[in-house]
Each structure stands twice: as structure tokens, then as C-alpha cells.
Amino acid sequence: MSPAKRSLQLPEVNISDDGELRYLHLATPWVQGAMRVDAPYDIALEYVQRMMAWLLFVEPDSVAKRRAMQLGLGAGAITKFCWKKLRMRTTAVELNPQVVHVCRSWFKLPPDGPRMAVVQGDAGTEIRQVGHLATIDALAVDMYDDDAAAPVLDSVDFYRDARAVLTDEGCMTVNLFGRTNHYEQSVARIAEAFGQEAVWAFKPTREGNTIVLAQRTPSRPRRALLLERAAGIEERWGLPARKWLRSFKPVAD
């Protein structure tokens, strides 16, 4: 579907709030993002926390010098965390202008500035821009329509474009939640674009979100190094990284 046709069918954006968590919806009960009301720059949802697993593959002291990109803004959790907590240069790409407006009004998404920009447009088109080639260290892909049935962009060509924007140490993380059984096909497409040895995956969360990570340059860090990095991630940024290692492994294994 072309960006022009998709723009004519953009769903209405709604929010709900239970006093502890605020949720973003696209005209259905399906949750498209969440924020902890008393800690708006933390990452509230387990599957979104897992999308930060790329931190296991880089030196902690190098993180603030790196660049992040989020495709599909949701409630802005990854963009806000990378900007506020990790101090990274961060770009988000979102097709629906209502999502951007609601994130700024209700989810504490800051205005554009020297280290952060929100691009309103089609993610598949945006990542093909020459200026992004080999510049992104952490690419988060979480794009679903209002039915949350399957990823909006999930082709081999899209994943090849995603690989092209990554630096040598860059990683893509993808949320493969879907109510239909697309997981194996999606992983096969990612492996075709990145190479089988580059792909890692978590076990599904209780809600059914399965996070897959693909490296621009495949590596197999020693278990001791991963444990050391996980402990550092927990201490610095409060993410449950040691818990990740119990359910995260290379797909090729």
C-alpha cells in the first residue's frame, strides 16, 4: 500500500489511564504503547524493555555517542528513554500525525531539539534516505495497524533497507507480536536479509510479544561478558538485563 493511500485510512488515536499506567490505542482496545504516569521516561512494558537488548552488544561508555531510530512511535517509550536516559541522538518516524500530537500532549514526548527529531512520514521510505545509511546504532521496529494483526513492514527488502542504515556495531530490534502466526516467516525474512548467524530472539512474553534482534555484524560474546554487561545495564539504566539472558539466544542455536 502506498503512503498516500495509507494516510487516508489512519485510525483515530485514543488513550486510557488506570492511574498507574497510561495507554495509547488506535481506535481499538489493543495497546499500542504505555507510560508509567509517575515515571514517564522509564520503559513500562516488558516487551519494550527487551527491545533495548542491543545494549548487551556495545561498550556502556560508548552509548551516549551513538544514534537511535524508532520506526513506529507508539507511546514514544523507546525514543524518550534513548533521549533522556541514554543521552543519545534519537530519531522517530511516525506516519500518523495524531500519534505525534497525543505523545506530545499526554506521554511527555519532548519537542524536537538538537538530540531528538520526530519525522512524520512513511518509515519504509524514510530509511531509504541516503543520509541515514550506516549511521544508526540502534534501530527499533514496532509498526502495527489498528488491528495489531501483523507487522506493517515485514519484507526481505525492508529488512535489507534496515540493515543498510546500521553501523558496523548496529542492531535492529523488532517486535513480532501478532494474532496470526507470522513469526517463523518473519524470522526467515530477517535471516535472509541479515544472515542466519546475525539473528537472536527472546522467548515470547506472556502477552505474546516476541522480540527479535539482528546484528549488522554477527558476533557471539562470551557468556561472562554478557553477564557483566547485563549487570551494568541494570545499575546504570534500571533495565532487567540479567533476566533477559535467561530467555535470549541466537536463532541459529
How is this structure best described in words?
The relative contact order is 0.15. This protein has helices at 3-7, 46-50, 77-84, 97-106, 123-126, 156-165, 183-194, 223-237, 241-244, and strands at residues 14-17, 21-25, 31-36, 67-71, 89-94, 116-120, 136-141, 166-175, 199-202, 211-215, 248-250. It has nine helices and eleven strands. The N and C termini lie far apart (36 Å). The model is unreliable at 1-7 (pLDDT under 50). An eight-stranded mixed beta sheet has the order 6-5-4-7-8-10-9-11. The chain has a three-stranded antiparallel beta sheet with strand order 1-2-3, with no helix packed on it. α6 (156-165) crosses α7 (183-194). The longest helix is centred in the C-terminal third of the chain and has 15 residues, at 223-237. It has 253 residues and is α/β, with parallel strands linked by helices. Helices cover 29% and strands 23% of the residues.
Summarize the structure.
With 253 residues, this protein is an alpha/beta fold. The chain has helices at residues 3-7, 46-50, 77-84, 97-106, 123-126, 156-165, 183-194, 223-237, 241-244; strands at 14-17, 21-25, 31-36, 67-71, 89-94, 116-120, 136-141, 166-175, 199-202, 211-215, 248-250.
